Amino acid sequence: MKLMTKNGLLLILVVGLAFAPLFLARSSEFAGADTQASDAISTLNADYEPWFKPFWKPPSGEVESFLFALQAAIGSGFVFYFLGYAKGKHSVSKKDQP
Amino acid sequence: MTIRKLKKISLLIAYVITIYIFFPDYAYAMHIMEGFLPFNWAAFWWVAMIPFVIAGVRSIKKTVALHPSLKMLLGMAGAFAFVLSALKIPSVTGSSSHPTGVGLGTILFGPTAMTVLAMIVLIFQAVLLAHGGITTLGANTFSMGVVGPFVTYAIYKGAKKLGAPLWLSVFLAATIGNIMTYVTTAIQLGLAFPAATGGVMASSVKFLSIFAFTQVPLAISEGILTVMVINILSAYSQKELQILAIFTGKELPTTKRRVNK
Asked: How many Å lie between the alpha carbon of B59 and the closest alpha carbon of chain A?
């Protein structure tokens, strides 16, 4: 199988895995697993008080999602820059040594 | 020459740090929250993590010093972890979590190199995003940067030894490594908060049901994505992969092609 076909099929699988839960578990809130863990701690040990507080929190959900999108954009920017660079280098070296 | 190598290492570290200063990560839903481990356990995991970090810094220095051409690839492995950690994905259990992305770097550069990258990620999350925490940094680094990568590495090597094809070894390694990170988190919380009836086991299982089951589909996604990147690398970056000994013997499509031509 060609590389593009192979990876294309794999990508479809990943997208399916990511979006299927939205339809399979419609009524859920999809909260983060860490929030659930702190709830579990308070039921296991009601007296437990976190003894250290974070210094800073992002002021709003909008700021948070902005930082997220930016992070994904920069990260994937570098990943795909590298992959493109590798492909370019590969095809040049193939031309040079027939 | 050594100054140049040092420059390259510091450039890489600066890149990682810059990303996490300006683009902090809110996504590590698995991390133990700040202040949520009792002091003694927090201290214990800190001490447990330190030898791995030292080994990791040495391993990165060695790789970059021996093969400066791999610097870009190392940066790419780091960037891969950044992207995946920014993607909070819904899971069938009705909650959300995200992949860790350390599997790719582990397969390429070995487990301890990823300990360092994972710790850098976790520090900036804790400081800038109130996610995870400084007090719980030891525990979180141990699960994501030590247990995850070492399990990934062991499975990758084991599967290859058994003769599994490259894609299957990579998939299993990344997927199971990801799940084991979350299993470790659950056990760490279980040890610190034993249930009144059933003790450590019972509460570990409780935390496991929160973290690990949510994680299964995401772990599979991470496995598939890691295979995709390895597919591309094995088509276009065989030289780098050969240096890193990703291929052995018969799995050297390029060398063959090059010899034939």
From this structure: 22
Region class of B101: left (phi > 0), else alpha (psi between -120 and 50), else beta:
left
Of B173, B114, B185, the closest CA to residue B146 belongs to B114
Tens-place pLDDT, residues B119-146: 877 776 676 666 678 888 899 899 989 9
Query: How far is residue B153's CA from residue A43's CA, in Å, rounded to a whole number?
Result: 36
CB B113 within 8 A of CB B63: yes
| ipTM exceeds 0.90, yes or no | no
Residue B221: which of A14, A33, A85 has the nearest Cβ? A14
**Best to test chain A binding among B18, B33, B143 (most A CBs inside 10 Å):** B33
Question: Average pLDDT, whole number, for chain A?
Answer: 78
Q: So what's the architecture of B31-83+97-245 in CATH?
A: Orthogonal Bundle (1.10)
- Indicate yes or no: pTM above 0.80: no
- The domains of chain B are located at 31-83+97-245
Beta strands in B92-178 (DSSP E): 95-97
Q: Which residues of B touch A5 (CB under 8 A)?
A: none
